[in-house]
């Protein structure tokens, strides 16, 4: 499978529930080295090209601020673990103000874990996001898939995808997956 996973409603993520909270898992393989993919995951300049602006102390124990455009989402987080080039674990606090200026869920904490492994001349990235409200897990699934697709575009030298159109294409599929959680 190539980096280019755009252009249809193909869902690459899975949703599950644990202890009454939603979990999003995105697994994708990229045609690049583990060191290059790690750099794309932790370097603020590269993060800005596929994820959003990230500022702050990205060392273990450090805190950071994110800004996701065009979604108009602000957030703060803390680096819990950083094991180059294989694992990054962060916690973030979602608030009513961090999600589209007062239109989001009640405050909750989430963890985001990125795990990288070499597979031949490719690198596998698994992103797991835990602690999500079950009524929002579909939105997070679609959002994290869009991030994975933008990462693929960045790694191949392409342009970011049209987030609005892609969001609409993916959201129904992720809502169906969320409905199956019970």
UniProtKB/TrEMBL annotation:
Q: Which Pfam families does the UniProt record give?
A: AHSA1 (PF08327)
Signal peptide, first to last residue? none
Q: Which residues form a coiled coil?
A: none
* InterPro entries noted in UniProt: ASHA1/2-like_C, START-like_dom_sf
The segment(s) forming the Activator of Hsp90 ATPase homologue 1/2-like C-terminal domain are: 31-155
Can you tell me which family this protein belongs to?
Answer: Belongs to the AHA1 family.
Query: Per its record, how is this protein called by name?
Result: Uncharacterized protein YndB with AHSA1/START domain
Species of origin reads: Kribbella orskensis
